[in-house]
């Protein structure tokens, strides 16, 4: 199979599709190892020193030394050396592409590899812990006040780009083509997880991705042209397309007319368009070559598979067309705009009316684009999954299904039901489309297993009746047992005694306030058996306050003490050490107010800890321990806000509900929310050149009474969305 994949790739290269099928030579390089310090220093002199001198020396060597870091003076013996942490920081900054800085000369791939390999190998020789990880890019790197300052007028800095489609877009593309053969289609794309939103860091088309795409194309065509033989006659297999069967039937002619027909039919099926004259000519020559070299069936199949490999099925183009305007920008072509706004809301190609609007010039103005976006939003029959997906990724509550839970005190914990509840709540708020963010942060309403509540009630009644019957038969055995009722873990996560009859249900206002008090979010930002106030605080600092929490230093293996007789707040005191608190001061006080909930999302006024003294005294007559003794103590959920962009936010709060109501009233919180919406719908971090777009989007949101639709329309019709700046002009814009 591998030989055929490579063959197909090589055959496609003359057609000009090398952006997809030029497979990189990927070989597993032998890991660099040092047996001695001399070997390490020799490698440093050979491959690393020149890189540091050439690419880093201007700032980190010589008379002027930035950040008190002279890279050429750092000790290269990391065993027992204090320089290990500095080298780890260098590795982290280089891997994050933060160094060299933007105005400097970037490292080549070879230089990047040499530096990475030497640091990793020397760390290993020195016995230092080096936790390899990808740097997380949370945005917020540009000071907030600069982006929203009225006088900010930096030029747009958005270069043309080609990026791979998302897994969802690719699945939508292959879904209709693979009916009945879905199991044969593998997903080639998987975001790296380096940023808040998945589409911001999609994978490159390397050898494994290319191999999967080609394998999928062949699977689709084999299904499309599948047949069995009954004597001399070909019979179509399940899922085969009868129109294509004639092309693989060796009894029938396959001249120029039939070859062209096959190519045109495949373009219509795979890309919903006709081939251009040039494409028709190239694919005709390609099929003839394949027929001559591989025979009738293989030649036809490999040629038809090539249509699935055309870049428009794999990539999203944002290159622009036409002359530069007076600001050095080029506008996306009408077809690029139609595709971009369609993929901004759906996972599919533009509907027919939108393609027609592009062809007729209706998308040539900003208002024309805004009208098209509003029409897409207003189409109730059109699925728009990317809107809910934004909130899933922004709040991160979908990660609840990834958190393994010890469920001794919460049997039948059902995180998927909790996620679906939150989906339903967000959808309900979006339907109202008024003060969306404020509602998301403060509502005390909730949907509680909405889809399956009625069915669960019936099953629960049956289970309860059986439990009572069993209890009557054997009262001793069932004396201390509770009935295991279907769905119980779900409604108890909301502190309810049953599923509500009316949806949504109003929960006590002093206990619940928005998505961050939904069990799904609280579970997502917790551990298997405890809360995680630090992660929760980091989330609030970055996604509501617009702050930046530095990544965990690469040499630090952060662990809280294993002390079950202490509360989480008490165990977190270790983070108050000077070195740690430089970062934890931004997270701890913001996350601790959520201690009013447990790690299953239940509101609580008391928490359970180990009673150390009672446990030590809990012995039998022979002195054998009888087990742990627990005790309840009042929850301390006090915390507060410090170092915020809005001085009115600073101060203490008693719990998470008070914290969220305070945040919901701040215009800065709205602006930070707009920044995240920008990143999601434009697939990149904001720059100073996007300031006007961000200000306008926030203004449109406020003027339309907190309308999410208004915010989306504003972003998808903005200059940042519609224009690109070629690299040679980016620095010269007036």
UniProtKB/TrEMBL annotation:
Q: Which residues form the signal peptide?
A: 1-28
**Stretches assigned to the DUF1592 domain:** 332-448
**Which residue range or ranges hold the DUF1585 domain?**
653-721
All copies of domain Cytochrome C Planctomycete-type, residue ranges: 56-103
* InterPro entries with a match to the protein in the record: Cyt_c_Planctomycete-type (IPR011429), DUF1585 (IPR011478), DUF1588 (IPR013039), DUF1592 (IPR013042)
What is the protein named?
Answer: Uncharacterized protein
Task: Cite a single Pfam family from the UniProt record.
Answer: PSD4
Q: Give the classification, highest ranks.
A: Bacteria, Pseudomonadati, Planctomycetota, Planctomycetia, Pirellulales
* Record's keyword terms, sorted: Signal
Superkingdom of this protein's organism? Bacteria
The UniProt record lists the DUF1588 domain at 512-607
Q: Which organism is it from?
A: Anatilimnocola aggregata
